[in-house]
Amino acid sequence: MFIGLDLGTSGVRALLVDEAGTAINSAEAALTVAHPYPGWSEQNPADWVAAAMTALRQLCEDTPEEMARLRGIGLSGHMHGATLLDQSGEVLRPCLLWNDTRSHDQAQRFDALPGMRQISGNIVFPGFTAPKVAWVAENEPEMFAKLAKVLLPKDYLSYWLTGRMVSDMSDSAGTSWLDVGARAWSPELLAATGMRVDQMPELVEGSDVIGSMRPDLAADLGLPEGVQVVAGGGDNAASACGVGALSEGDGFVSLGTSGVLLAARDGFAPRAESAVHTFCHAIPGAWYQMGVILAATDSLNWLSRIVGARPAELTAELGDTIAGPGNLRFLPYLSGERTPHNDSAVRGAFVGLDIASTRTDLTRAVVEGVSFALRDNLEALRLTGADLSRVLAIGGGARSRYWIEVLATVLNMPVDLPEQGDFGAALGAARLAICGVTGAAPSDVMTKPPVAETILPRADLRAAYDDAYAAFAASYPTLKAMQ
Fold it and tell me: Per the annotation, does 79 bind a ligand?
């Protein structure tokens, strides 16, 4: 038996699978996020540990015989977080999360450094780790003076599990400290941003074993001795492992809190100015690129809070079949935007509100606006040479057939819906554990899921959606000029 332990922004999920990757059981524990000031987003790493313990204990209670045969645990988690430890391994302050944008000045300064984009392969976004640590250095110098090690969120859990400070290539690629092409820490980038190599964790591939679970922890949970902990990957790389997106031409679209359009790549082909992320994959010798929007289902959740109806109720009002774009336009920049604008300061808007606008009109505009933003991502990915001809849809938003039909038409490509099951980051982490412990090849373990349905673009409506997308794309400069 193997576990994929996925640290998400809103909770920890533990997925138990057998050696064939078949899901046996799962357990979850919720997390909260603190926003003490605008643009700030923090979590206490002790809460991650408590949630992981809760989820693992639940699996032990529900499936004791299977857990007694546990051989490995793989990790996945949200990227870019700055978890700062002192010399004794104690946490210095709450972790600055991926969607924390307070370090926009530091990010802009680092992005202008010679060689930064060329070596890291990416723009330095405010959400990345390096500018966050620089913010701490400049605003909390007493904390920075004690800094001995920086860990990414999931790597703090592996440290708790094993006592070793280790990270994988895919997660580390989002720090702005990694030479992404060479798959190694860059002394040049570290020195330029005021850091040292000894403050970084040891680097391994995502399918490498870090070590055994601490005996005291295994005994506390009632688990067998010698359970191996595998490095795993950042959440999107792990999700790619979960859906079998390993090679050139493979890709997926994720309609989660944030939105992701990901393309697996066989080589390192960055184009930083496109604001596309170019990262190492969680498997050796591979990379991936992705466009990221910061508010996908988060935009729908925001509307849900405003109008007092659940997101599923809102999308149900749209039906299952599209009939063309609405007259109301939504720009989903509620938390700023990454691809293609690299703009942490811009904020969202409705354009074309009318006294006759209804709740359904607002929902349609949100769905379309998120889809248009993902079209922006597709155009940016094409500039890098990525060639996607179809994608698999995952995430909570993929449960709306209407949304998927809009997306297929806006992207002008087939969108596959997987059969019911676990195909996300937790499964990818479990698959990495299987590979690490058994030595199985990723291509044999990380297969594509069965497709339940393929949603085709609506040829009769494509021109109308293309026109609506053009109007959407033209809105950003005007919106920016107004703010």
Answer: yes
Structural domain contains residue 316: yes
What's the token pair of residue 231?
């490095």
Over residues 299-353, the pLDDT tens digits come to 999 999 999 999 999 999 999 999 999 999 999 999 899 999 989 889 999 999 9
Contact indicator for 47, 9 with CB cutoff of 8 Å: no
Instruction: Please confirm, yes or no, whether 266 is among the known catalytic residues.
Output: no
Output the pTM of the full model. Answer: 0.92
Q: Phi-psi region for residue 40, left (φ > 0), alpha (ψ -120 to 50) or beta?
A: beta
Q: Per the annotation, does 482 bind a ligand?
A: no
Start-end of H helices in 182-268: 187-192, 215-221, 235-243
CB 56 within 8 A of CB 127: no
> Do the beta carbons of residue 175 and residue 132 sit within 8 Å?
no
Find tokens 């895919």 and name the residue: 170
Question: Residue 290 is part of which domain span?
Answer: 244-418+450-482
Examine residue 216 and state whether it is found in any structural domain, yes or no.
Answer: yes
Quote helix, strand, coil % in the chain, to nearest 5: 40, 20, 40
- Looking at 235, 343, 416, 422, which residue is catalytic? 235
Which among 210, 237, 264 is the end of a domain? 237
Short-list 136, 161, 139, 162, CA closest to 150: 136
Token representation of residue 115: 């060689």
Q: Nearest to residue 236, comparing CAs of 215, 259, 216, 205?
A: 259
Q: Is residue 437 part of a domain?
A: no
Burial of 452 (0-12, 13-18, 19+ CB in 10 A): exposed
Closest to 210 measured CA to CA, from 81, 75, 53, 90? 75
d(CA 351, CA 332): 11
Q: Do you know the residue count of the chain?
A: 483
